[in-house]
Amino acid sequence: MLSEISLDFRAGEVHAIIGENGAGKSTLMKILAGHLAPTRGELRLDGAPVTLRGPVDAEKRGIVLVHQEIMLAPHLSIARNMFLGREVRRGLTLDDKAMNARAAEAMRAFRVEVSPDIPVERLSIARRQLAQIARALLAPHRVVIFDEPTASLTPLETDALLALIRGLKAKGVAALYISHRLNEVKAIADVVTVLRDGKWVATRPASALTPLDMAKLMVGRDLLALYPERPPAPEGPPSLQVSHFYAPGYAEDAGFEVRPGEILGFSGLVGAGRTELFEALLGLREGKGEIRIGGRKATIRHARDAMDAGIVYLTEDRKGKGLLLAESLAINLTLAALDRFRKGIFVDRAKESRALSDAITRFDIRVGDKGLEAGQMSGGNQQKLLLAKMMQLDPHVIVIDEPTRGIDIGAKQQIYRFIAALAAEGKCVIVISSEMAELIGICHRILVMRNGRIVGEVSGEAMREDEIVVLATGVDPHAAEARA
Amino acid sequence: MSKGSLFSRIDIGGFAPFAALALLAGLGAMVNSRFLGLDNLSNVLTRSAFIATIAVGQTLVITAGGLDLSVGAMAAFVAGLMILFLNHGLLDNPLLLIAAAMAVSLVAGAFCGLANGLTTTLGKIEPFIVTLGTMGIFRSLVTWLAQGGSITIKSPDLRAAYRPVYFGELFGVPYPIFVIVAVAAIGAFVLYRTAYGRHVMAVGSNEDVARYSGINVVRVRTLTYVFQGLCVAIAVIVYVPRLGSTTSTTGLLWELQSITAVVIGGTRLKGGVGRVWGTIAGALILEVIGNIMVLSDLVSEYLIGAVQGAIIIIAMLAQRSLSRSR
Q1: pTM to 2 decimal places
Q2: B206 and chain A: CB distance < 8 Å anywhere?
Q3: Could you give the residue ranges of the DSSP H alpha helices within B122-163?
């Protein structure tokens, strides 16, 4: 998995570890945090060799790992989660008051105002992530390892987190930072180490590297432009028209249309209601309003209605809602379109197997063994499989929610190409993303949502991050500065 | 599918129940030489028919992420209805009357299952609670129908005409054994070969993924309960000619036995993985253990419920350790 790596992490330094999925970052982190023991080599803490007997031992020595996966008890409150296993007591009873106060304060460090006694399950993914980071930092720490901490955060929250990491640095903590977002790495890291295929490639000062340099080192070859050429501007009457659409509690009075061959972006902060709007449109949650497909009014009550009408939705929650992780690729591939794989009442396994071979070729799903379970593949391959799964339905309109979350740069580039190719074929692609750069890179135009409403549209020259941020937050930073 | 996947799919969990069954058979032969006699084996198989049949339905229900505790009470209730219909004597021809009674039993079973299914899915209530409730309802209804006593087929002619369904043989094989094989084959075909079966598995494996794949989760789940109801009805059709009557204690602990058979068979109790043939092996294991207890003097046969209760717990422990080692 990992061989011959020698690295120094200094106090008061942010050391970024980058590399494609499978490069060995996670293995390295697990060794450092005591989850795995190295087969050879040694770990030195303050110059003295140490053997970590497990994550608890590592934590005792001040090495804290902030996991990428959210590991909180959904029914317990934020405060109870943060203090789980290290509760503050007053005599025999719990001191909820103190714990709540400290939890609220910890969340405020991320500029999040939230009551600490609401259950974690009612928080957005982003806020759960922040709560988890806060929990990790409650333990005394001198080495903090962040594994993709910003994967589900919006720009605003990311900024807050980066500020917090700078604070740790100032206190003399050694921070390790793993991320796919190279701009962030550039912004926060002092030193960058690149891993590839389990081997060390380079360690350089961040100031000496541009994000493009980093990407080249990660991939090991010259990276062509990350974004494909934009398909020609869409023409013809709209394929999908939505007007006065409501998703109760999440989206209000939404209206937009999308034409054949168009790539339409949806930007906004996490919690702006983008996902919920489309889930409601696609019959996955409650919603009402007018939907026209090809000019004709459509009624969509269940996910199946949308699929029959030629609209599919690729969920942002690949592992939880997109794929059956414990099942084979073939079963996942045909699950949404099983009616097309029938011979009488039986599933036509030969046809299914052919479809899998086709999908593997077309979407470049990299698996050695076709009998693998979906959960055993990397995030990038899972995303390709999810795309292939929905393409079995021959849709006209494809809604992709966070198409590149948690996948490596090579797979990202491929996903962008698939999206462009679909548009070039005359299909409509709607991309929901928190990564503004990717929306700007691939979309014809971008709609921005804020608090459940579509508040603006940018296209052409105006497709810039600052324009989108202004719309998404409702705050004009320039105006704010001018006033200050 | 490639060879590798074939081996990873048929894991130890899939073989374990059959290996356990073979081991028990060996033990049985050691304890009493009569055990391996054709008569005894055919007896064991015949007697396992009720639980095996019901457990096939239970396999589908559990694979879809549900549970049915009401099967035993439902069996007693459906048997009561069936016998009352027979006693009503709507038709003169006894064979036609029996055929009609079988149809009544199937319809009644399907309705009981439908009630369970719709209440859990549309009512969004835990299946544990719903079927615990209907267990009480069915049990009480049969007690009421029997006025605390028993419901018996009155006409001796009718009883004689119906008797062969349980006691009859074809090529020396008792009919109930054919019933087990047929029901299991249908269950296996539905679960492994049809789109519906694939949906059952998907719903049990991850309901959200199923929903986002456009699968009608309510329909898929509800139909598993209807299938369970039909399986109960088939078990009743085989059960009624055995004694010709039903009481409020008919089918007592069948829910424990059928769920135990399913779990021994390697079906995941949380859903997503169903093994129909494993379930049949599980049902046979239960019956063989009972048989060995009767044939030997090692343990009192009055303790059979305790043994079965222990087995389900041991089976769960085994499943847990197997899934951990994977």
Answers
A1: 0.79
A2: yes
A3: 127-145, 156-162
